[in-house]
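Hi C.,

You asked whether I'd gotten around to modeling the 622-residue construct. I have! Everything is below, sequence then structure, no commentary in between.
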Amino acid sequence: MTPMARQGDRTGRKGTGQRRRGGPSLRKGSGGKSGPAPESPHSPARTLGNKRPGKVAPKRKSSSRTGRRTRRTGGARRSLLRRLVSGTAVAFVWGLVALVAALRYFCYTLADVEQAAESGRRPGIFLNDVDGNPVLAKGDLYGDPVNAADLPDYVPRAVIAIEDRRFYDHSGIDLIGLARALWVNIVEGRVRQGGSTITQQLAKNIFLTPERSIERKIREALLAFWLEWRYDKDHIISLYLNRVYFGSGAYGIDAAARRFFSKAAAEVDLWEAAVLAGLLKAPSRLSPAANPGGAAERGRLVLKAMADTGFISPEQAARTAASTLRTATEPDGRGYFADWVLAQVNRRLGLVDRDLRIGTTFDPGLQRLAAETVAAALAGRTNPSQAALVAMSPDGAVRAMVGGRDYGASQFNRATQALRQPGSAFKLFVYMAALERGLHPDDIVTDARVNVGGWAPGNFDGRFRGSVTMREAFAHSLNAAAVRLADRAGRARVAEAARRLGVTSDLAPDLTIALGSSAVRLIELTGAYAAFANGGAGVIPYGVERIEGVFERSGTGAGEAVAPGVVASMNDLLSAAVARGTGRAAQLAGRPARGEPGPRPSFRDALWVGFTGKRVAGGGVG
């Protein structure tokens, strides 16, 4: 091949390459002039009408491009799915982090459960009798902490059956129970069942306020989960039994058992346990003390629930429900004594901000006797309508107190609050003042008509005895003789004798003081007589022996108030009144008694104060 031919061949190959690239130079000739290029299989197709050809779109390979499009669409879908999954995972993680943070915050702001359970309640005051046994409790009463495992099994089971029968199956929130309660309420058309578990109730009881809000419900749920995580079921039910309110100021099942049945929680029977569990729905309305019928009806419902859950047999439930429910009662009026003691405690301690256990002078046996005596005196009578009685030891320790016919109907204490004219019982101070002036029981005093500024007192029987000994004048409660003795001893000395022996009320500044015209309190008058029962020591009646960790009594009174000789002479006079005078009705077989009545024209207003060797008592009706 010649050089020219080789050159042409190279040129042809070059041109071919240019045509494949489709560039504009494909339209130029070899001489460099412009003009139409010859047609060839590689030339672009012309347009219609022999118009100048434009750019020709490349040929499409339809199958390959459709595959690429499908691959692109599938990839986009997979990418979207990956983004959704990734976003959901991120949201879940952050939600979990937020939940954990919320739980940590709530838990951090919570006090310890045991400490929280002791907060937010009024202090309780527990009164024990002279032998250390419980008398009464005031304020919020918390019994001894109990462990559910140490109680008869029917005690916690009664609560679980009526309050949360799936207690051992849920983790703080019972979704099945919520659904069941919702369905029952819809069917009944009213709120008949609640969905709160025992754990939720415990959380609300210990940590939360009574407000109703979404935030509080969320906190309640979180706290329920937290309690379930921190404690086992037995501990939770024990906390619940120790904390929940049963009414009448009783918090916890031991306090409720003591208040309503006078026994510890470990000693209640099945029937009592059912009644206690039934109180949780409406503690005030279903109280056995105020509504025994309602409490028993609710107790029967608890027994049925226990049978339905398999805790007891239906036969056992029926047999128990048919038995008699016996609740603790206070027929002896001990509430009067308790109120008087608490008033003493308040005067000594002021505002009480913690639980107090108080040892008192109360004698339950003597209290029963006092209550029976008052009841017998008022039996079948409407006038007098009230009575009072107080009994104490010679040192002033009050052993029994009845302040009225019925403490439930009236809490006014006629033994400690009422001011009444003592009548002849006040002559004790007149004769004491005369004896202190040097007179003797055998000295003569005149019982004859006396007129003091138009006031001319006579005797109860309308007769005057003339000249009589002081002993006879006192024994028969001769009024004219007493007025003359008061004038002889001096009215101021009579008043001073009464003050020295504990009378604090206002006293008449004239001779009417001799016949008891000045109103005094029964407990003060009785305390004054106690000085002659103990040998002359002044006493201040008291009911508190000790306050645990605060106070222990030492000493009993104001020391010697009456000289021994005067005490002996006064006891001579008091004995004569019982032996052959106006106090004969107070004679006791085999025991010497001394005292003086305060006679009135009729039984409607009578009073008596006296003593034996071990007891001093004062009583009155009116």
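If it helps when you're writing up: DSSP finds 20 helices and 19 strands in the chain.

Thanks,
B.
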